[in-house]
Amino acid sequence: MRGHVRKRGKKWCFVLDIGRDPKTGKRKQKWFSGFSTKKEAEKEMINKMNELDKGTFISSSKLTFSEYLDNWLQDYAKGSVGPTTFQLYSTLIRTHIIPSLGAITLEQLQAPHIQRFYNNMLEKGRIDGNGGVSPAYIQRIHSVLRRALGHAVKWQLLTRNVALLTEPPKVRKKEITTFEIEEVKQFLTHSKDDRLYIAFVFAITTGLRRGEILGLRWKDINMETNTASIRKNLVLVKGKPTLQEPKTNGSVRLITLPSMIMQVLKDHKKVQNQEKSQAGEAYQDNGLIIATSFGTPVDPTNLVRSFKRILKVSGLPNIRFHDLRHTHATLMLKQGEHPKIVSERLGHSNTRITMDIYSHVLPNMQQEAVDRFEKMLLRDRENEKI
User: Which pLDDT value is given to residue 280?
Assistant: First the structure.
């Protein structure tokens, strides 16, 4: 028989004759396991037999890790992740993973191979040869390996995901730098005449990500309800600003806008209409709120460049543009806003993520809560005496 099904413990498996070894002439067999029912195992066995008949069957004993990763990028990643993520996967795989692990066959790849690879990356992983890469960078590589090998298990090419048996270096939590309220006012004063002022206002008053701000369109704003629908994200794909769908369902959200930004939007619209009139037929109307003077998307690096210039002129601390998002969240939490509301505005998938990022605010929040509780308790006791 070319194959047969059997039960091992609580799971079903099957063995398949995949031909004869050209050197020894001995029959070669391949086991496939992990099926919940006999019917599932029989169905997959028939599929593998068909692959053998058509010549499309891939044996992991011959398949190198490099070949598998190339197949995985094309067969899975290309159609399942966004262009930016696909570009990142391709870069990490072809720049680091394949040169170090690609020659090993998929079946022979073991956890020690990957662990040694991580250690080498930490010491001398930079492309220019000047030292190692950061633990955060290795965590990205680990994420790709874990996902790619997970599909190898799912596709019955491996019996286990060896990336799960490794320990990539831990990433130290970065200390968040934010503006105090007076610094926010100072920054807004110095940036008021900048043509990207509207982007800075959005970052501070809504906590939107950079790409979400640059991806806002006029049709996303409801002037009657003072709300904005976050439905697009602008990112650089091969150096070109590109509108994409948000990465997660939580990122697609409706947020309330403060009244001050509504007036800034109206003023900004007048300026944009003037630019459109001056550009004439050269204007490319993409419906974007934040655009160049010719209507095209603003390059994210140009937004950051303007932001850094204003910081230097105003004498404010040299923070990142992303720290304006942290500033919004921190100020809201400090004024007693419920973490769930802050989480929803930021587009986090759950409140736990928000509380973990902004744990530095919690001690003060807890102290203030305890003080309020104590005042209430003492007030009630005094009333009882009366």
Answer: 94
306 in helix, strand or coil? Answer: helix
8 vs 254: CA distance, rounded Å: 51
Residue 238 has, within 13 A of its CA and on its CB side, a CA count of: 5
CB–CB of 64/104 below 8 Å? yes
Residue 116 burial (C-beta neighbours within 10 Å; 0-12, 13-18, 19+): middle
Q: What is residue 374's predicted lDDT score, i.e. its pLDDT?
A: 77
15-28 CB burial, b ≥16 within 10 A, e <16: bbebeeeeeeeeee
Q: Which two tokens stand for residue 85?
A: 């993520």
Residue 96 DSSP one-character state: I
| 203: its two tokens | 């970052």
Count of residues in the chain: 386
Stretches in the chain below the pLDDT threshold 70: 1, 20-23, 56-61, 362-367, 369, 380-386
One-letter amino acid for residue 242 of the chain = T
With CA atoms as reference, report the closest residue to 186 among 290, 310, 302, 305: 310
Strands (E), 94-212: none
CB 39 within 8 A of CB 20: no
Give me the pLDDT at residue 60, please.
Answer: 58
Task: List the one residue out of 63, 138, 56, 147 whose CA is nearest residue 102.
Answer: 63
State how far the Cα of 272 lies from the Cα of 266, in Å rounded to an integer. 10
